[in-house]
């Protein structure tokens, strides 16, 4: 495969992990909940998905296990912050730390495991187009499903009644409650769905993107996904584009090494995180722009009847 086609293909592959997680966090934040536990949820989902494929040989089982693990952890997080009114930021950090430790403990026996032979996917005819074919049409179906889900989420948030209700809960939960909407249940549903998407991202990472299990393999992608929601000003299409941008930066280090560019490997490895810091630093220069786009009740607890 041509080097540039390979770079584009790997960018889509790497960006899918970030896009799934960031879209899940965007749904959380549209409902007014900040979940800093994405890293932990993705790690637990990664080992759950990997173990499921090892024992069943089915990618679908792996994705289901990953989504279930992410949803379960998100459910616990949601009950704590929505019903017991614990601090969202502290609870999210605790979830992230728990996920890192728990996944490392559970994954000890899977470090040397190998997955069954992978099935190759390609779109007939389109996959044979020079340059673009190998890059765009030989991807795992989850890549295309992520793009389709992004389009569906845009429609849901701005064209459906349920999406309007979700956004209203994130903007003014008091007003939504006064109109008779079950704010806490809506928030919990958004948190669980967001957790399931983070779980899918973790499972995709260990089952398709790598595919293997290594302790701490998420390697900061959960935090990058969290930054992506701000970078994209809480817009799904921008999240997808941003995910591909950061995915491309991640893959650029391997491309440069393959082209014989002599740069310290440590510098190349830090490129995605450096790009994250740079983008957030540039955005912080215009806080008004962020404030206008950010859900008004983001991070604020809601107490019915108070």
Automatic annotation (TrEMBL):
Compartment(s): Cell membrane
Keywords: Cell membrane, Membrane, Transmembrane, Transmembrane helix
Keyword Transmembrane helix among record annotations: yes
Bilayer topology annotation: Multi-pass membrane protein
Pfam families linked to this entry: BPD_transp_2
Domain of life: Bacteria
GO MF terms held by the record: transmembrane transporter activity
InterPro entries membership: ABC_BtuC-like, ABC_transp_permease
Presence of the UniProt keyword Magnesium in the record: no
Coiled-coil intervals, chain numbering: none
SUPFAM superfamilies assigned: ABC transporter involved in vitamin B12 uptake, BtuC
Entry's transmembrane regions: 6-26, 33-54, 60-84, 91-111, 141-158, 188-207, 213-232, 239-255, 267-284
CC annotations in GO: plasma membrane
Protein name: ABC transporter permease
Organism for this UniProt entry: Ramlibacter aurantiacus
């Amino acid at each position: 495969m041509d080097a540039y086609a390979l770079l584009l293909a790997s960018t889509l592959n790497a960006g899918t992990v970030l896009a799934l997680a960031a879209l899940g966090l965007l749904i959380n934040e549209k409902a007014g909940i900040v979940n800093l536990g994405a890293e932990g949820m993705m790690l637990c989902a990664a080992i759950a998905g990997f173990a499921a494929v090892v024992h069943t040989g089915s990618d679908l089982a792996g994705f289901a296990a990953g989504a279930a693990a992410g949803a379960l952890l998100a459910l616990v997080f949601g009950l704590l912050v929505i019903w017991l009114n614990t601090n969202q930021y502290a609870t999210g950090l605790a979830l992230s730390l728990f996920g890192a430790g728990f996944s490392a403990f559970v994954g000890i026996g899977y470090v040397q495991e190998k997955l069954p032979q992978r099935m190759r996917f390609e779109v007939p005819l389109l996959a044979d187009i020079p340059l673009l074919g190998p890059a765009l049409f030989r991807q795992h179906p989850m890549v295309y499903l992520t793009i389709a889900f992004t389009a569906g989420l845009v429609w849901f948030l701005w064209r459906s009644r349920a999406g309007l209700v979700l956004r209203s809960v994130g903007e003014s939960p008091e007003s939504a409650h006064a109109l008779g909407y079950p704010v806490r249940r809506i928030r919990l549903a958004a948190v669980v769905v967001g957790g399931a998407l983070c779980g899918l991202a973790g499972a995709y990472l260990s089952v398709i993107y790598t595919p293997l299990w290594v302790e701490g393999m998420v390697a900061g992608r959960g935090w990058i996904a969290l930054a992506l929601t701000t970078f994209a000003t809480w817009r799904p299409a921008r999240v997808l584009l941003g995910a591909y941008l950061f995915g491309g930066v991640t893959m650029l280090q391997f491309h440069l090494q393959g082209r014989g560019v002599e740069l310290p490997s440590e510098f190349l490895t830090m490129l995605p995180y450096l790009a994250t810091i740079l983008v957030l630093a540039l955005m912080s220069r215009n806080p008004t722009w962020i404030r206008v786009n950010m859900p008004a009740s983001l991070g604020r607890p809601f107490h019915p009847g108070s």
